[in-house]
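Bit of a strange request maybe. I'm writing a small parser for structure token strings and I need a real example to test against, not something I typed by hand. Could someone generate the tokens for this chain?
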Amino acid sequence: MADLLDMAAEQEENRLQGLLATRQRPAPDYTISETHCVECGAEIPAARRIAVPGCECCVFCQELREVRRG
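Reply from user aminoacidic:
Good idea to test on real output. This should exercise your parser:
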């Protein structure tokens, strides 16, 4: 009986890990980032564009977006 419970728990853990992996998949490396923030127009530093492929906003505006989304 314990073996069946262990197997079921392992299968559930694998399923959850798979779901989390698909949600947290980063943007592909070939995604082009904006050079200037679409919200305020400030230049987005090269380090941010490299670290966050596909970014559209400066750090400040991105934080505001995330606060608004909740």
